[in-house]
Write a structure and sequence with these properties.
Layout: E1 2-14, E2 17-21, H1 33-46, E3 51-55, H2 62-71, H3 77-94, E4 99-110, E5 113-121, E6 123-129, E7 135-141, E8 149-153, E9 166-169, H4 175-184, E10 187-189, H5 193-208, H6 213-232, E11 237-238, H7 239-246, H8 253-261, E12 268-269, H9 273-276, E13 281-285, E14 290-294, E15 302-305, E16 310-313, H10 318-325
Antiparallel strand pairs: 1-2, 1-4, 3-9, 3-10, 4-5, 5-8, 6-7, 8-9, 11-12, 13-14, 15-16
Length: about 325
């Protein structure tokens, strides 16, 4: 990983007051910018809520304009990021949204191009052991509480026809910020991951229909698990590669089926992990009941009656049986 430029600013907006602490110079190499980004990138890749798109064509958009000026050398990273934080503070004030955190702007030089990372980091109070082996108050970055994060391919921003250079995601508890941040970074969706995933899995359903029922369930589950793992790693799913991984006996079977029955389908797609879960486990909950079980169990030790919407379970977990018997 090569971080060529990075800077951090502080922005707080609480109870009608807003304040920010703007840095006046970029981070140095010794400031661990690369280590910081190495913590952020895998967390971002594993998020299931990512959305893929580009800058909206409607209106100029402040952030979009700042990026264009920065790329055109009208602004440097310091000025670009400072102005972005100032405009973000105004947006928070106008929409009466509270927020507190540090905002990292980092340029990551990759083979795929220069990537601008924008991430909201949160710091928490804790304890650390000092040189005298005594606990003392300390502050630390809790990456598990990372807020909004965006990845922008700078080399594709001005390329005609490019519609997938901006990826955004939100952390837990970020709901009040979602609409505001999507508007702020001028984001528009161009990739429907749910639609692409469900279309692909529908084809897998059709393909596995001639298999014995047990084999079909296992095959669909293996395909879904493969897609899920690709999504967790931030990778796309290529159905030709998937076919070679899953179908050890007939590694081109799914390939041929898709070419014959659905040649229009994308060879690679971004998997939507929420759409894949039902191929791995059935789950649901109400106020009083929570149920989750492997899809392979249905028809074996678990049966469903659609006429009266009832499940019949056998081979109950030993711990549950003990609880029911009061042992």
């Amino acid at each position: 990983m090569s971080v060529s430029q990075a800077i951090i600013h502080r922005l707080t907006r609480e109870s009608g007051d807003k304040s920010y602490s703007l840095s006046d110079k970029p981070l140095e190499v010794s400031d661990n910018a690369a280590s910081l980004l190495s913590e952020i990138k895998p967390l971002f890749a594993r998020r299931a809520s990512k959305r893929y798109g580009c800058f909206t064509d409607e209106g100029a958009g402040v952030f979009k304009g700042l990026v264009v000026n920065w790329l055109g050398d009208t602004l440097n990273l310091v000025s670009f990021s400072q102005k972005a934080i100032e405009y973000l503070a105004i947006a928070l004030e106008e929409q009466d949204v509270e927020s507190d955190g540090y905002w990292l702007f980092a340029v990551d030089e990759q083979e795929a191009g220069r990537i601008l990372w924008l991430a909201q980091l949160r710091q928490f109070d804790g304890l650390a052991i000092n040189g005298d082996n005594r606990p003392q108050p300390s502050e630390y970055l809790d990456f598990s509480k990372m807020g909004f994060c965006a990845s922008l391919n700078l080399d594709q921003v001005n390329q005609p026809g490019e519609k997938k250079y901006l990826t955004v995601s939100f952390g837990f508890g970020d709901r009040p910020m979602q609409g505001l941040m999507l508007d702020f970074v001028c984001f528009t969706d161009t990739v429907n991951t749910t639609e692409d995933t469900e279309r692909f899995m529908a084809i897998v359903d059709d393909y596995s229909r001639d298999m014995p029922e047990e084999n079909a369930k296992r095959y669909r589950k293996e395909v879904a698990e493969y897609c899920m793992e690709q999504g967790k790693n931030g990778e796309t799913v290529n159905y030709r590669e998937l076919s070679g991984e899953i179908e050890s006996q007939a590694p081109t079977g799914l390939d041929r089926y898709i070419e014959e029955r659905a040649p229009e389908i994308k060879e690679s797609f971004i998997p939507d992990r929420n759409s894949l879960k039902r191929y791995i486990r059935y789950s649901g909950r109400s106020r009083d009941v929570s149920i989750s079980f492997s899809n392979e169990s249905l028809g074996k030790n678990i049966t469903f009656n659609p006429n009266n919407n009832t499940l019949t379970l056998s081979e109950l977990p030993a711990a549950l049986v003990k609880q029911l018997k009061g042992e």
